[in-house]
# Entry
Amino acid sequence: MIDEATLGRAPSLMVELAARSDVGRQREQQEDAYDAPAQPLTPADYERGVLLIVADGVGGLAGGDIASRLATETTRDVFTRDWSPDTRYALEQAVARANTAVYLRGQEAETGGIGTTIVCCVLRGDQLDVAAVGDSRLYRLRDGALAQLTVDHSWVQAQVTLGALTEEEARNHPKRHILMRSLGARPTVEIDLRRFALADGDRLLLCTDGLYDLVDEAALAQAMTRPPDEACALLVRLANEAGGSDNITVLLAVVGLTGWAAGADEATAAHAVVPAGAPAGAPAGGHAGDLAEEPTAERPVVGRSAGNYE
Ligand code: MG
# Structure
């Protein structure tokens, strides 16, 4: 609950979360991992930024489960310990440190390198910072329209970008699991960082390929409209009913931006864009430049190199 002391700078953001991770029907080991703050979220969670993480240990490498767990734990720990009000920077530093941790652990392992994907985001005030490496995804459902906010660092996505494959061909391509970039493959990694404006009612889904390989986007969007717990259970069930060929992990966040407490100015609350915990004097709407990055295309194309995994 929000006490007297926080009135007037109360978080405008309210987030409801649910998550589910399932081994699927054909794998024996769970190599996905996820992390989210415990519910109910506290004012401190909102002030710091609500950090959500999903990782998928890279198949074919021994220790994928170790890599995904180490990546989620390191990202959470570093983000919390070295927190900065510049959440984009804090998130980048945390993921970079996770890369180092996984890389070093891989160097120790007798079996050779280990690796993982990671998709993570921080919700703070009315803004969403996203960081991604690999092919785990973040989707946003807004006003019934599903948008993929991350770009896969996969060989097939590179071919789509080049115009060598259509999206339909990529979806069923035998090489669709080959990653161009992953966490822990090299001492340093290029991280995709993007910032979006949140809107009241946004539904954000972080997931591994065990979900989106098997469940089409129309079904994803439909399921995401359900209450969070029910939605997560349904998504896992749909993937399993379609074969459950891989581990399945889903993390759903429902965004409320109407939670201004009494004490907030009614007139400004309607257009409130001051992030929770913003330093005194931070200009309302001062993120317009960054938020202009908001894509208009369904699948935004961001600048990215051929990666570091060739
Ligand atoms: Mg997978």
Observations:
- The two ends are 50 Å apart (CA to CA).
- The pocket of magnesium ion is lined by residues 56, 208-210, 246-247 (CB under 6 Å).
- The CA atoms of residues 216 and 239 lie 10 Å apart.
- The first strand starts at residue 14 and ends at 22.
